Amino acid sequence: MTAESLAETKHRRDDAGDRAPAVPRRPAGPVALDGHEATVILERTRASVDPELRAAIDSLPGSMRRIALYHFGWERADGTPSAGNAGKAIRPALVLTAATALGGPVAAGAAVRAAAAVELVHNFTLLHDDVMDRDTTRRHRPTAWTVFGDADAILAGDALQALALGWLAQDPHPAAPAAAARLAACVVELCAGQHADTALERRRPGEVRLDEVLTMAEAKTGALLGCACALGALYAGAGEEDVEALDAFGRQAGLAFQLIDDVIGIWGDPHRTGKPAGADLAARKKSLPVVAALTSGTPAAAELAELYEAPYDKEDVARTALAVERAGGRDWAQDEAADRMARAMDELSRAVPDPEAAGGLLALAEFVTRRTG
Amino acid sequence: MTAESLAETKHRRDDAGDRAPAVPRRPAGPVALDGHEATVILERTRASVDPELRAAIDSLPGSMRRIALYHFGWERADGTPSAGNAGKAIRPALVLTAATALGGPVAAGAAVRAAAAVELVHNFTLLHDDVMDRDTTRRHRPTAWTVFGDADAILAGDALQALALGWLAQDPHPAAPAAAARLAACVVELCAGQHADTALERRRPGEVRLDEVLTMAEAKTGALLGCACALGALYAGAGEEDVEALDAFGRQAGLAFQLIDDVIGIWGDPHRTGKPAGADLAARKKSLPVVAALTSGTPAAAELAELYEAPYDKEDVARTALAVERAGGRDWAQDEAADRMARAMDELSRAVPDPEAAGGLLALAEFVTRRTG
């Protein structure tokens, strides 16, 4: 699995290594863009979305509710209450912040249900991805399938998807049908993205094209961030062009995030990421910098391909990282992330020309891509 | 797995054994209720719903479309077109026939998208249930997970659920939001039913109560039949009472079906079911007649419990079937099926007092419970 829960990743990886940040700071403006603003937005989001989310989950039958409450960190495996660690709520924050940017606080207030629906969809995909990828840890706790078994984790994921789309269908807001259709289309794209990811991982290193990995990352990571922003725009009553611009903003920011996340997966400080150095290389992940390096046509690319075909050897990790770097994978990823972030800003400024109004979305985009928060 | 695809089961099991049918024929009326009427309805349903279904599936990205087309029998595993065997379309037929009963052909015409959505949901649950239950055959072909792997079958199921609810959300019909909310709630109930089924199968024979198995069967089999009828009523503009009555009609007919299906699973003619005699007993299934027998407090119940606890022995199948029968499991199931069918008729006549208008739904209910078609 290449894409990670933005929320979870934030806990483990706070540093993009010893390099300068890929994404240049926005020129000084009227809105303070330090991590503080994003943190405030995220806290406010949790406060307004959590009750809606809890109400949705409480409406589930006991068997499904139990698994969902465990997955969200609100119950332990034995059913006792837990303080909870349901993630940073980046996606619902994007819904509410996009609604605010285009329609002010009233629009944001009306979009709380849509924000909860997006978070439910995100968590349904996490439950299923963990089963498929056999991931055993999520948000510092054993994944649901390791506790309840594959079948129950699949069923709880199915129920969360139904809850998300059904919850939106019951929303009397005039934007709800369009939002539900858009969220459903996004689920299909997420499925195709996850499929592409596993299919790419099964192919030989020399057989993977860079555009394929970019498309996969956009479907798997960018699509839901874009959809979250688009839903906020829909609830603000925005026109089609602005809705699409905000979708594109979220997608591009999501790709920038994925590129930085992939850089950290290779060169991140193990003390800060909580994972051994070069963990993604050890797992032979065809992450974006790796595929950029493999397809660079350089001598280092050939060396990298050979290393990736050979069985894993701990001694080779540093050499592999160096090969990716010498083949230009690291520079490409940093440049591409900056480029994607610039495109995101561009899309944002088209839909929300007022820098003050755009400040919240900008802060969130910088928060997920810079990890300075 | 206790519940079966009604459609598929119809192929394998056409006989309830040498007994008289559990469900008495309806008194003669103005509408002919032989299997012919149901067959005509089902054929007409396929003709109107298939194009909608194909359009929905064609809107999927290639990777997901391929798995869906295979699952529906419209493509072979190698991607070449196939004549298709997508099942008998009982659920979409219930949607359209309920809409006709309460709103005439115009309502039925408007409900085609809802009918397709119900069929998509049904097939999403089949894809996932087959993964969880490790079932290798569906509609006489290898199940999708045996061809594409677990992950792809899970993803294709996820995509079909999204397609179903998203397809409804895009329907401009005024009933669409209520229909989507109802279908989503039904998905949650189906998940809880599948969970209960696997949980019950893991428990010891003496620890399962009859009311638990009835509740499970209602959630797993009855809920979607009821939802299909309710959606038809919603699209006919029916009031809440009629919608609920049609939901109850479908649920009770679904339970009657399950009871008869369970009887056939024990005493059905292997030449007609295509399965060895007593297949459900050999698999130690806690089907409805078995649990009725186990909880009967008779000496035969004790014998049955002992046989069910022991490792499978082919020689014991006939003795086990006899124990279920002597403990009253067979009679109970037949009586209960007749009772459920009577309740179904009762609910139907409340919402649709005109026997002519109710004829189609009656024909479908008899078709699935009598298997004379």
UniProtKB/TrEMBL annotation, chains A, B:
It holds the Pfam family polyprenyl_synt. Gene3D superfamilies: Farnesyl Diphosphate Synthase. Keywords: Magnesium, Metal-binding, Transferase. Transmembrane segments: none annotated. InterPro entries: Isoprenoid_synthase_dom_sf (IPR008949), Polyprenyl_synt (IPR000092), Polyprenyl_synt_CS (IPR033749). One of its GO terms (molecular function) is transferase activity. Residues 19-30 have a biased composition (Low complexity). CDD domains: Trans_IPPS_HT (cd00685). The keyword Transferase applies. Signal peptide: none annotated. Residues 7-18 have a biased composition (Basic and acidic residues). Residues 1-30 are annotated as: Disordered. Belongs to the FPP/GGPP synthase family. This is Family 2 encapsulin nanocompartment cargo protein polyprenyl transferase.
